[in-house]
Amino acid sequence: MDSGSSFLWIKCLPCSPCSSKSPISIFYPRKSLTYSSMSCRRYRCNHSKCNSYNECTYNITYVRGPGSTGIYVFEQLSFETIDDTKIVVPRVLLGCGRNLEVDKGQYNGVFGLGVGRETSLITQLGSQFSYCVGNIMDPHYPYNQLSLGDGAIMEGDSTPLESSYGRYYVTLEGISIEGKLLEIDRRIFERTAMVDNGVILDSGTTYTWLAQDAYNALSEEVRSLFREMLQRYKGMPNQLCSIGSVREDLSGFPAVTFHFANGAQLVLDTQSMFLHIAPRVFCLAIGSSAVNGDNSKNLSVIGMMAQQNYNVGYDIGQNKLYFQRIDCELLED
Questions:
Q1: Among residues 221, 147, 136, which one has the least CA distance to residue 177?
Q2: How many CA atoms lie within 13 A of 281 on its CB side?
Q3: 197 — alpha (psi -120 to 50), left (phi > 0) or beta?
């Protein structure tokens, strides 16, 4: 799932590359009675993007992570509701991915949660959704969940939310560590016209990326806390990495708190702040947006690691975002 984009696409046969040993399913259009491809004659298709079969094609790329090329199709989707019934949505416009930049057998598509395009499924299903992820590094964690429409959970502290061009913008007012508010000019978090800046939530991004001045202030504070504890790992010059174990060496390490408008907070413990890249090497899972290129260097992105162990609720109709710190398993009750 990706709250930073508004397009839903799935792997479809035939595709390349596609592993025959992949543990995940791949959609086979010929076995579906409700599948149809979008003709190039439809007004929504740009005729310059037609293939030799008169099918309308798409090509989607992401700032970080593999993209997908394929065709636009219509398909019927079914969803389970909280009372064990089903909702059927006919003729949903989505992408049938045929050519993938990489295939490691880890996923079979991207569920874009953004709004603002006719391909947005969120727009078709209602104005609310929520998700809770316990540990993104554990593919077997059974309590991760995504709730759409009336079943979405809107609990906890709220902060203003603005949706624009498939993105969700929030107002970040400051960052603190161990109760100490870092010296960051909050204007670097503001969204202005004609520049790709501001702060967005992106469940499709693992790391959190901060505008340079904010990253400098946070990384320097973390580095100062490390100086007497851990040896710096120099194999990743563009990241703050150390030799050791998060579990063993960072017990009692202070939390980092993101402070949003109206008093909402997102508190990052060590599990949400640091990521092992080797058994005895870990890095700060927060980086400088400058590494994402000049076009994105002023855009701060709050990724999925920072959102672990939170139920995050998006109320698009009321322009509110909710943060509720909770064990995702408790949402099953």
A1: 221
A2: 10
A3: beta
**What number of CA atoms fall less than 13 Å from residue 331's CA on the CB side?**
27
At residue 256, the pLDDT reads 97
The arithmetic mean of pLDDT across residues 189-201, rounded, is 88
Q: Where are the alpha helices (DSSP H) in the chain?
A: 121-125, 212-226, 246-249, 270-273
Cβ atoms of residues 272 and 285 within 8 Å: yes
**Cα–Cα distance for residue pair 98/117, rounded to 1 Å:** 22
Which tens digits make up the pLDDT trace of 152-178?
999 999 999 998 888 999 999 999 998
CA–CA separation, 305 vs 136, rounded Å? 7
Q: For 137-178, give the DSSP string.
A: T-TT-TT-EEEEGGG----SEEEEEEEETTEEEE-EEEEEET
Tokens linked to 163: 């949706």
Residue type, 193: A
User: In this structure, what are the phi and psi dihedrals at residue 296, rounded to the nearest 5 degrees?
Assistant: -115, 10
User: What does the H/E/C string look like for 27-61?
Assistant: ECHHHCCCCEECECCCCCCCHHHECCCCEEEEEEC
Check whether 296 has a pLDDT greater than 60.
Answer: yes
Structural contact between residues 92 and 112, judged by C-beta atoms closer than 8 angstroms: no
260 contacts 173 by C-beta, under 8 angstroms? yes
Q: Which residues pair with 288 in a beta bridge?
A: 210
Omega before 17 cis (within 30°)? yes
Residues in the chain: 333
SS3 260: strand
List % helix, strand, coil for the chain (3-state, nearest 5).
20, 40, 45
Token couple for 277? 């890249």
